[in-house]
TrEMBL record:
UniProt keywords, alphabetically: Cytoplasm, Iron, Iron-sulfur, Metal-binding, Pyridoxal phosphate, Transferase
Annotated protein name in UniProt: cysteine desulfurase
Gene designation: nifS
Superkingdom per UniProt: Bacteria
PROSITE patterns: AA_TRANSFER_CLASS_5 (PS00595)
C-alpha cells in the first residue's frame, strides 16, 4: 500500500490540469510574444491563466507576474525592493521562521550593505504586530512575513501585520505558497503589496510560480532581456506550465470549502488517533489557526529520520521538515524559534494530508506508526532517561 502524506512538499497534478496543458506541447506551440496566429493563440492561454490566478486572490490580472517558482518570486521581491528603494533606506524586517527562500536572500542582502531585523515568534509561531511596529525604522523599506508556515502550519495575522507596516509607509510582502488553495486569500482585504505563489502546491505543475505586485508599486526587474511579463520578467514564458497553473487555480477556487473541510476532518482524526495510540507526543504550532492539512509532531526518545525511513519502508511518505531543506542535518530553524528542545526537534515528523488522502490511509498510517514508534523506543538507549 502506498500512502502519500507530504502535501506541503508538493502535490500530484490533477487530471483536469494535465488535460488543459497537453495542447500547449503540441498544436498550440507558438511563442506568446509572436504576433501571428499560433503566437496569439498561445497568448490567449496565458491571459486566461493570469485571470484565473488573479481571481483566486482577488487581484487584477495586470497585477500577476509569472515566475519559475515561489522561490524566484521571493527573491524578486527582496532584491527588487532593495534595489528600487535603496535611496530611501537599507533596512528589511522579516521573521525567524520564514522559508529559506526569504532567509537566504536576506543573508545575501546583508552581505551587500543591508541590515535585516529577524523578529522573534511566540511558542505557536506567531509574529506579534506590536513587535513588528517596534522593529520598523525610518530607513525600513520592506517587511516580509509568510502567510502560513511550511513546517508547523501556523497562519499569521497578515492583515494586522500589513496594517502595522502601512502605518509607517513601508511595503509589505507575504510568501503565500503554503496558504494558496488552503485558505481564502484576498490581497485587498489583507492589505499586502506583494504576494508569492507556487503552482505545484495546489495540484498544478512544478516549475511555475507567480508574484502579485499591487498596482502602482515600483519593483525593479529581476531578469533582463525581452519584454515579457509587462517588461518585468524577461524570458519566453513556460506556456503549458502557466496554463496548468491557471487551471489548478480555477479548481482551487471552486473546491476551496470542500478541500478545507476534507483536510481538516482527516487532520483532526489523525491527531486524535496518534494521541490515543502513542504516548510522549507533542503537536507543534497553533491548534486553531493552522494549515488545514498540517500536523507537525514531536515523538519523545526517538529520531524523526528513523520514523521517516521505517514509514517509507511500509509505503508511507512523510517529512521531517521542509522538503527544501530536509536533506540538511541541521536542526529546524522553525522549531528552534518556537522554543522546542533539540531532542524534541530531532524526533519531529511533519504529516500533511490533501485531496487524495482517505480515512483508510490514516488508519493504515496510525497502525504502522504505532508499531514503528514502539520498536524504535525499544531500541533507544535513552528512553525515559534524564535529558529527554
Amino acid at each position: 500500500k502506498q500512502v502519500y502524506l507530504d502535501y506541503s512538499a508538493t502535490t500530484p497534478v490533477k487530471e483536469e490540469v494535465v488535460k488543459e496543458m497537453i495542447p500547449y506541447y503540441g498544436q498550440i506551440f507558438g511563442n506568446p510574444s509572436s504576433l501571428y496566429g499560433p503566437g496569439l493563440e498561445a497568448k490567449k492561454g496565458l491571459d486566461l491563466a493570469r485571470k484565473r490566478v488573479a481571481d483566486l486572490i482577488n487581484a487584477d490580472p495586470k497585477e500577476i507576474f509569472f515566475t519559475s517558482c515561489g522561490t524566484e518570486a521571493d527573491n524578486w521581491v527582496l532584491e527588487g525592493a532593495a534595489d528600487s528603494l535603496k535611496n530611501r533606506g537599507k533596512h528589511i524586517v522579516t521573521s525567524r521562521i520564514e522559508h529559506h527562500a526569504i532567509l537566504h536572500t536576506c543573508e545575501y542582502l546583508e552581505k551587500h550593505g543591508f541590515e535585516v531585523t529577524y523578529l522573534d515568534v511566540d511558542g505557536d509561531g506567531f509574529v506579534n504586530p506590536e513587535t513588528l511596529k517596534k522593529a520598523i525604522r525610518d530607513d525600513t523599506v520592506l517587511v516580509s512575513i509568510m502567510t502560513v508556515n511550511n513546517e508547523i502550519g501556523t497562519i499569521q495575522p497578515i492583515k494586522e501585520l500589513a496594517a502595522a507596516a502601512k502605518e509607517r509607509g513601508v511595503l509589505f510582502h507575504t510568501d503565500a505558497v503554503q496558504a494558496l488553495g488552503n485558505m481564502p486569500i484576498d490581497v485587498k482585504e489583507m492589505g499586502v503589496d506583494f504576494l508569492s505563489m507556487s503552482a505545484h502546491k495546489i495540484y498544478g505543475p512544478k516549475g511555475v510560480g507567480a508574484l502579485y505586485i499591487r498596482k502602482g508599486v515600483r519593483l525593479s526587474s529581476f531578469m533582463h532581456g525581452g519584454a515579457q511579463e509587462n517588461k518585468k520578467r524577461a524570458g519566453t514564458e513556460n506556456t503549458a506550465g502557466i496554463v496548468g497553473f491557471g487551471k489548478a487555480a480555477e479548481l482551487a477556487m471552486e473546491n476551496l470549502d470542500s478541500h478545507i473541510k476534507h483536510s481538516e476532518g482527516l487532520r483532526d482524526y489523525f491527531w486524535q488517533e496518534i494521541e490515543k495510540n502513542i504516548s510522549g507526543v507533542q503537536l507543534n504550532g497553533s491548534r486553531e489557526k493552522r494549515h488545514p492539512g498540517n500536523l507537525n509532531v514531536s515523538f519523545d526518545y526517538i529520531e524523526g529520520e528513523a520514523i521517516l525511513l521505517m514509514l517509507d519502508g511500509n509505503g508511507i511518505s512523510v517529512s521531517t521538515g521542509s522538503a527544501c531543506s530536509s536533506k540538511s542535518l541541521a536542526p529546524s530553524h522553525v522549531l528552534e524559534a518556537i522554543g522546542i528542545s533539540i531532542t524534541k526537534m530531532n524526533g519531529t515528523v511533519r504529516f500533511t494530508v490533501g485531496d487524495f488522502t482517505t480515512k483508510e490511509d490514516i488508519d493504515y498510517t496510525v497502525e504502522v506508526l504505532t508499531k514503528t514508534v514502539q520498536r524504535l523506543r525499544e531500541l533507544s538507549p535513552v528512553t525515559g532517561q534524564e535529558g529527554w
